[in-house]
Amino acid sequence: MDKVFSEYKKNKSWGLITNIDLHSCDPNFIRDAKKIESFVIALCKFIKAKRFRECIIVHFGKRKAVQGFSMVQLIESSLISGHFANATNNVYLDIFSCKYYEPESAAKFCQKFFRAETYTLHYTFRK
Fold this sequence. Notes:
The chain has helices at residues 3-10, 27-30, 33-46, 103-114; strands at 15-23, 56-60, 68-75, 78-85, 90-97, 118-126. The longest helix is centred in the first third of the chain and has 14 residues, at 33-46. The chain has a 6-stranded antiparallel β-sheet with strand order 2-3-4-5-1-6, with helices on one face. The protein is α+β, with helices and mostly antiparallel strands.
């Protein structure tokens, strides 16, 4: 049993939210809606989350600093969302679920998928 799961159980957590910032990703991946959709499907399988309906992926941003795709995927245990910033090739993901998943493993999965150089990760237990 991993340390995070022990703490999750000890706190009688209702859920877990993980914020993952991926730095210097492959620009071809973060600018491709089909790749983003493939990522969402693969991530849901990886964390054993059941997708609810289709993933919403929209490209927007009037200012270059914020332009890029944003994504929302409802899952039966909550949701996954993200923004893909063209200006920096960074990705900002949030995974919220009332079903436990391992945050560090999820972050490494995301890093590998988008070929990110580095990542930062923060998680919070929800009560």
